[in-house]
């Protein structure tokens, strides 16, 4: 299942038009102006809808990733979908502007921006399911998924956008950056596994050593070890390797 190329322009135009209309509207949220000046209650509602999507479809989401990647449901819940948090949304909401260091569409939705997602085709089962679920929980004016391969990606990159997020390999990142440059579109890259964990203090206390090893091992076993690599002081290497092994054994 792919998104027809002719529909991609229509999807983008719809997202942009509804967003710009909402900026000039003084009315309450409605189908024609759903954002209501990017109101906080509306944005919080969209995040709560995402939480509902995960909670009500956790088994199906886990099963789809098992089909695509052979990933155990325990790992999916821990690292992929089980980290959706609801209770602290109000406490986390403050008027603070900063530059986030994790490129993810969730931040854009939380900020009230419309998002067009092109998921990787290698997890097709998972994204077919998500493409069916997203319209049931989120306002289509907020989030839309376009499915497909190279032709669909090429079409999306031809459209002038406000910002592009990309997570993946360097080859595709170069293609995306070149396309973004034509429109001077800002692009945020997350090149997986490029950020090392640096442990540069060999004099850490016993408890801090144990916690650091446990934390690193806990992340390293996800996604078949794809998580960032580790840099350790030579004098601490043997001990850290031993602590990591013990953490893996649960000791």
Automatic annotation (TrEMBL):
Q: Which InterPro entries match?
A: Ald_DH/histidinol_DH, Ald_DH_C, Ald_DH_N, Aldehyde_DH_dom, Aldehyde_DH_NAD(P)
Its family?
A: Belongs to the aldehyde dehydrogenase family.
Tell me, what is an example of a GO biological process annotation in this record? aldehyde metabolic process
Q: Does the keyword Protein transport apply?
A: no
Q: Name one GO molecular function term.
A: aldehyde dehydrogenase (NAD+) activity
UniProt key word Iron: no
Q: What is this protein called?
A: Aldehyde/histidinol dehydrogenase
Domain (Aldehyde dehydrogenase): give its ranges: 107-226
Q: Which Pfam families match?
A: Aldedh (PF00171)
**Gene3D superfamilies cross-referenced by the UniProt entry:** Aldehyde Dehydrogenase, Chain A, domain 1, Aldehyde Dehydrogenase, Chain A, domain 2
Chain ranges passing through the membrane: none
Q: Name one GO cellular component term.
A: cytoplasm
Q: What UniProt keywords are attached to this protein's entry?
A: Oxidoreductase
